[in-house]
Amino acid sequence: MRHETRYLDTRGVGASRPTFLEAVLKGIAPGGGLYVPEELPTFSLEEVLAFGTMPYWRRAAATFSRFGIDVKDPRIDILMQRAYGSQWDDPRIAPITEVRPDIHVLELWHGPTSAFKDMALQCMPLFFSEAVEVRRARGIPTEDYLILVATSGDTGKAALEGFADRDHTRIVVFYPSGGVSEMQRKQMVTQHGDNVAVFGVKGDFDDCQNAVKSVFGNPAFNAALAERGIRLSSANSINWGRLLPQIVYYISAYADMVTSGGVRPGEPMDVCVPTGNFGNILGAYYARHIGVPIGRLICASNENNVLADFIATGVYDISSRELVNTPSPSMDILISSNLERLLYHLAGASRVEDWIGRLSSERRFQVDRETFRAMRELLVGDWVSNDDALTTIRRIFRETGYLMDPHTAVAWEVAERLRGDDPVLVVSTAHWAKFGTAVLKSLLELDYPSDLPAEYAALDGAAQLEAVMALAGEGISGVPSGLAGLRDAEERFSSVVDAGSLSIETAIQEWLGPA
């Protein structure tokens, strides 16, 4: 019988050791920490390379099984075939493109919302619903669940798409008003479903994230929900159900790189990830830890370069930083929540609790010398200015004919600066059309803060994408249907609330209606 893995709290609070399904339902640990596996599997090189002969859904199923989730293998297979099925525009799900012989791109944006968040959020809601049904089948009193999401752009739409109209589940998304691309905003506010709601927040992503975390930590609000038979959970990457699918695509990518000749079997490849909340690059860390031949983890930041500075110095300091608006808004984050998981694995729960406490109270912390050394053995990092990001889009398109979004451009530029002797895999997190205004500015050779010329500024989002296509010429793939159809989609949500847990709680209560 397959061994079931249990999960621990990164801050070491309490003795609870939930299973995978229980951890997915809880979302966040009772003490505010994040769940991590009590033990990790080990993959041999032969097992990794065997992924190259499997369809993607089977790669995902094999990984989940090896991680000891409390779902039987035949059922895992069914759920994975649903998660990675016909809703993807490429049957390979996460294909690799050789843009140059020395740099390949892992395209994670072929799902229904054209962003890498689909890789997890076409999967996680299925297991969330499975967990609810398992509890009901066992006769365990089960509440309905309210999923709260703070998003810097892409998570919101992907979570809404994944949870829309699911039984026993409601979902509310909060995004920074004015802090996401127009295409991202339009995707969220036109979302279908009777169980969904979307609110703009007067503030930045960190304001959204801190307010949502405060709601989770408010006993009175949670008690009021409990009286209505509702329990809170999360679809952000603080939920382990988001992390496990991200490990899959790094195992998959290495197998595909070997199959294509991009790397020799057993030799390492470096991975460069545009990084905001640290979940995507953390997936690469776990893949490396369990046996995938990944060399360096290259952390690419935009002008909100707190992570690049932390990797260079061991000091995480946001005490004097202001969040900068960039053409890569999904990375406009100063508090990278998933870093807590890496620090747990490097230093243990007691130090994590101290460091995260200092970050909350003092807005900074510094790791000890041993942890810093261990981190530097894994990670290197650099950051890219707003103008350089747009320049990179234009330069690589002219050199290779490959058009990328601003987040991928940040990773590409850092990969070029820091690459060593090993092949480099650049992680592409969104289709260029999700950030059409920035790509249009790039092709028009404008600086980032510059306004578009009047004839372009007057165009709606869909028309701007058409303008990009006209400037790019032949050879550029069309706009995904899910984005092209937004022009005529009805905007269902327009409310904007103040940043703060009380405002968010009020918005939730009003949306839920009378008890």
List the helices and strands and how they pair.
Layout lengths: L6 E3 L10 H7 L8 E3 L7 H6 L5 H11 L6 H11 L12 E5 L2 E5 L10 H4 L2 H14 L6 E7 L3 H10 L5 E8 L5 H8 L6 E7 L2 H12 L2 H9 L2 E5 L5 H21 L8 E6 L4 H11 L4 E8 L4 H8 L1 E3 L21 H9 L1 H14 L1 E3 L2 H10 E5 L2 H15 L5 H13 L5 E5 L7 H8 L10 H4 L3 H12 L8 H4 L11 E3 L2 H12 L3
Parallel strand pairs: 4-14, 5-6, 5-8, 6-7, 7-15, 9-10, 9-14, 10-13
Antiparallel strand pairs: 1-2, 3-4, 11-12
Task: Considering the chains and any ligands shown, give keywords for the structure.
6-stranded mixed β-sheet, Rossmann fold, 515 residues, alpha/beta, globular, 5-stranded parallel β-sheet, 23 helices
Summarize the structure.
This protein is of the alpha/beta class. The protein has helices spanning 20-26, 45-50, 56-66, 73-83, 118-121, 124-137, 154-163, 182-189, 205-216, 219-227, 240-260, 279-289, 306-313, 339-347, 349-362, 369-378, 386-400, 406-418, 436-443, 454-457, 461-472, 481-484, 501-512, and strands at 7-9, 35-37, 96-100, 103-107, 144-150, 169-176, 196-202, 230-234, 269-274, 294-301, 315-317, 364-366, 379-383, 424-428, 496-498. Helix 3 (56-66) crosses helix 11.
